[in-house]
Amino acid sequence: MRSSASAEAGAVAVPPGLLSLDGPGATEPAVAGAKAASLASARRLGLPALPGLVLPVDASRAAVLAASTTLATGGTGAARPAALRTRLPRRTDSALRAAVTALGGRVIVRSSSPLEADHRWSGAFCSVCEVGPGDAGTAVRACWASAFAPDPLGRAEACGVRADELALAVLIQPELTPKRVGSPGSWTAPCASRP
Q1: What is the pLDDT of residue 181?
Q2: Does 1 score more than 60 pLDDT?
């Protein structure tokens, strides 16, 4: 049985160059990163997971090359701006805008690295909230640039990963906004006993 989130994904058009979490390749960490691959697998099992679109790992190669080359001479303070300055191909930029629109116009852009299958990489890379169609390219480059912050670079050194191996896929999902938040009487403490 498919979840209602899975049913919603059928209505999402997949722009060229992107993968649907429900499509081929999405369960491959080397293509979609570990986070997206795990969510794609969960959706295939009928577990509740939001629909999403993935910009594959290969799309980050130019930014990673620019940042890792700059890192050698200018350090992390120069590497991140080098990734941020990487121009997206016009087709990719158009696909990202279309993806945000297809997913409701307001999304969260999440890093999804093949390295995240290893617990040592949990929380290493960034996500960008409240992204609209016009901000999608910047949010993607911010995810890529996050690989060159001091913390991920330290993890890379400890794990024997070279800076030029820090390629990331990017997962784009609808951003949920609660319509109602908890109020007194609508929640209990985790260990509270009930009468």
Answers
A1: 67
A2: no
Alpha-carbon distance 35 to 64, whole Å? 19
Contact 170, 140 (CB under 8 A): yes
| 114-142 tens-digit pLDDT | 999 999 999 999 999 999 999 999 999 99
Given a contact cutoff of 8 angstroms between Cβ atoms, the answer to whether 34 and 122 are in contact is no
Short-list 49, 64, 38, 29, CA closest to 143: 64
Please report, as a single letter, which amino acid is at residue 111.
Answer: S
79-119 residue pLDDT tens: 999 999 999 999 999 999 999 999 999 999 999 999 999 99
Q: State phi, psi for 96 to the nearest 5 degrees.
A: -65, -45
- Report the predicted TM-score, pTM, of the whole model to 2 decimal places: 0.85
Report the C-alpha gap between 135 and 156 in whole angstroms: 29
CB 86 within 8 A of CB 63: yes
104 Rama sector, left if φ>0, alpha if ψ -120 to 50, beta otherwise: left
Residue 33 Rama label (left phi>0; alpha psi -120 to 50; beta): left
Distance CA 24, CA 18 (A): 11
CA gap 176, 116 in Å, rounded: 23
DSSP, residue by residue, 127-175: EEEEE-GGGHHHHHHHHHHHTTSHHHHHHHHHHT--GGG---EEEEEEP
